[in-house]
Amino acid sequence: MRGRIWPLSRFLVTTTVSKHRVFAWLSAPTLPDHQLVAFARSDDYFFGLLHSRVHEVWALAQGTQLREKESGFRYTPTTCFETFPFPFPDDLSKPKPALVAAAPRRSHRNRMAAGEK
Q1: Partner of 48 for a Cys bridge, out of 20, 66, 90, 100, CB 3.0 to 4.6 A?
Q2: Run of H or E residues at 11
Q3: Cis amide prior to 95 (ω within 30 degrees)
Q4: Residues 6 or more apart in contact with residue 63 via CB below 8 angstroms
């Protein structure tokens, strides 16, 4: 993993267990531990797909539930990520890559404008 994320300006992570699925950017020299799932990608298109409602519903259906629903669920790469049917950016029947990539940037700008940190 170190070799894959080191050349990137940033990489994506999410926690393994959470009530809400959130993806965040990190950068080297930060190294994720066993409680984070790291993705060696730095593009906004990939971030937009993972942060989409479609992937959220998929992950909730594929991930494992903790004891109580309020405690959250476990996101596992083998069941939640590897089985997700990623659309190819050149497939014209899917959303345009620029639109998918713009969504998380727009969401971040809106949160910053509203005063969230």
Answers
A1: 100
A2: strand 11-15
A3: no
A4: 73, 74, 75, 76, 79, 80
Structure-model confidence comparison of residues 74 and 99, the more confident one: 74
Residues composing the chain? 117
Beta bridge partners of 25: 12
The string of pLDDT tens digits covering residues 63-84 is 887 766 666 788 888 888 888 8
**Single-letter code of the amino acid located at 17:** V
**Tokens 């990520």 label which residue?**
81
Structure tokens at 47: 């971030």
Closest CA to 11 of 40, 32, 33: 40
CA-nearest of 114, 108, 109 to 22 is 108
Helix, strand, coil percentages in the chain from 3-state DSSP, rounded to 5: 40, 15, 45
